[in-house]
Design a protein that fits this description.
about 190 residues; two-stranded antiparallel sheet; about 20% helix
């Protein structure tokens, strides 16, 4: 009887889980345990010499946080899209490893993740050679998002705000979570290069 009651209550337990703030030292996340996806990710950086590689690194769950897992990314169009990209933290193995937390990855269409999103990350590293930049990412969901068989919600879009430290100038990009159909500059919704 108790096991049946627990099975009935389990979905309510997941729905009742609060959003959590996760400080990974190198970046910060607001994470939805209900959606099993990040809601916001914030980090700053200035390009430094790379001393680490991602060799042997894989995504890991966080203790006491309900996150997505490998099952949410199998046999579908969704990559484990780093929000705070590993390459921005290659100056240290510890910093780079921190980016492999499931709290830092979102269900991102593989063509977006490996296309214009990756191009923007590369551009950020070039800009960060001249000025420190601060990045804020909003992961946006429909009211009733589609979910993977593992229960993680699929984001509708990603909005990335890049602030240049010395001037305060901002660039805001927004990407629907679908295969890109335009070049990177067409996703710029505010600011100019």
């Amino acid at each position: 009887m108790l096991s049946k009651l627990l099975i009935l209550l389990f979905p309510f337990f997941i729905l009742a889980q609060p959003d959590v703030k996760v400080d990974k030292k190198y970046y910060q996340v607001t994470y939805s345990q209900k959606l099993k996806q990040p809601l916001t990710v914030d980090y700053g950086f200035r390009t430094k010499t790379c001393n680490a590689t991602r060799s042997g690194m894989d995504f890991y769950t966080e203790k006491n946080i309900i996150t997505s897992s490998n099952v949410d990314y199998v046999n579908n169009d969704w990559d484990k899209g780093h929000m705070a990209p590993a390459a921005d933290f290659c100056y240290s193995r510890d910093a780079m490893l921190a980016t492999f937390s499931y709290t830092n990855c979102a269900l991102q269409h593989y063509k977006l993740n490996r296309g214009v999103w990756k191009e923007l990350e590369a551009a950020e590293r070039v800009w960060a050679e001249k000025d420190s930049i601060i990045v804020h990412i909003d992961i946006i969901f429909n009211t009733n998002p589609t979910k993977t068989p593992g229960g993680a919600a699929i984001p509708k879009s990603f909005r990335k705000t890049i602030t240049f430290y010395s001037t305060g100038n901002k660039l805001i990009y927004e990407f629907p979570n679908v295969p890109p159909t335009q070049p990177l500059d067409k996703y710029l919704i505010k600011g100019k290069l």
